[in-house]
Design brief:
Oligomer: single chain
Number of domains: 2
Number of helices: 5
CATH superfamily of the largest domain: P-loop containing nucleotide triphosphate hydrolases
CATH architecture of the largest domain: 3-Layer(aba) Sandwich
Strand content: 5-15%
Strand order of the largest sheet: 1-3-2
Keywords: GTP-binding, Nucleotide-binding
Protein name: Tr-type G domain-containing protein
Radius of gyration: 17 Å
Structural class: alpha+beta
CATH class of the largest domain: Alpha Beta
Distance between the termini: 36 Å
GO molecular function: GTP binding; GTPase activity
InterPro entries: G_TR_CS (IPR031157), P-loop_NTPase (IPR027417), T_Tr_GTP-bd_dom (IPR000795), TRAFAC_GTPase_members (IPR050100)
Helix content: 25-40%
Order of helices and strands: EHHHEEHH
Amino acid sequence: MGKEKVHINIVVIGHVDSGKSTTTGHLIYKLGGIDKRVIERFEKEAAEMNKRSFKHAWVLDKLKAERERGITIDVAFWKFETTKYYCTVIDAPGHPGISKDGQTREHALLAFALGVKQMICCCNKMDATTPKYSKARYDEIVKEVSSYLKKGRLQP
């Protein structure tokens, strides 16, 4: 009898409008998890609603209200398997109760309190920095986030 595959849960957390669903949907598409024709359909539908940039988010945001408002309302799941693992991606809505400053720190603390031992921390929306894609700003974010992840015994 073959060795059983390990099940891995991948939870995508972050504040509202940080690009969780868009990034995750794009990754699912790039890894072959969704057909190009479906993305093309989402692109057409999103353009009709003046929400062209949401085409990848719609891989996970399926509710009409989510698409109209441009936010994740309900938790979304996407399952796939590799040669070694069964994986479940869980796209969580942004938590409205956390203040704008320190959200990443709050999410990391919550994840640590819930028993998360491994974390991948992504720096998104670097095109919104001044100047765009600022290496200095990126380095500043990496230094700050790495500092408090290590304090929580998480290895970034």
